[in-house]
Amino acid sequence: MRTSYLGANSVWQWRASVVAFANLASKGDRNFAGFTEMVLDTCSQLLGSQERFAQTGVGWILRELSRSDEGRGIMFVEANLDRFSREGLKNATKDLPPAVSERLRQAHLPSDTRGRRRRR
Q1: How many domains does the chain contain in total?
Q2: 31 exposed, middle or buried (CB, 10 Å; 0-12, 13-18, 19+)?
Q3: Helix, strand, or coil (residue 5)
Q4: What pLDDT, in 10s, does the model give residues 94-113?
Q5: Is residue 39 included in any domain, yes or no?
Q6: Which of 72, 80, 83, 111 has its CA 20 to 30 A from that of 42?
Q7: Would you say residue 67 lies in a domain?
Q8: How far is the C-alpha of 55 from the C-alpha of 73, rounded, in Å?
Q9: At what angle do helices 11-19 and 35-46 cross, to 10 degrees?
Q10: Residue 40 belongs to what H/E stretch?
């Protein structure tokens, strides 16, 4: 059995903790004050998992959040770049300006080191 994560016992519950907000994310804090911070906090926790569907869920929600606050989305990705899978990063940067998306992908860890954290 997996260790409980975010109070859930399966990757599907973890994923649902962000994906459930996908339709609201493009409006960011216009939904309610603190919405974006709440979602980014959950994304940060989910990035602790290298499970494919947790990572893609984070990517989807970040893609949507970046529509309401592109700068904040980019800052979050930059701050957590070493925690993203290649697929999660691709989803998160899909709708960013091409030059920004390419810069982030180039800065990303090579796929053979995915899941390892950089020493700071």
Answers
A1: 1
A2: middle
A3: strand
A4: 999 999 999 999 999 665 55
A5: yes
A6: 111
A7: yes
A8: 15
A9: 160
A10: helix 35-46
Q: Which residues contact 13 (CB under 8 A, 6 or more apart)?
A: 6
Tokens of 18: 């962000």
pTM given for the model? 0.83
Within a domain: residue 63? yes
Say yes or no to pLDDT of 1 above 50.
Answer: no
Q: How many residues does the chain have?
A: 120
Range of the domain at 36: 11-107
First CA to last CA across the chain, in angstroms? Answer: 32
What pLDDT digit, counting tens, does each position of 5-34 carry? 556 678 888 889 899 999 999 999 999 999
Confidence at residue 74, expressed as pLDDT on a 0 to 100 scale: 97
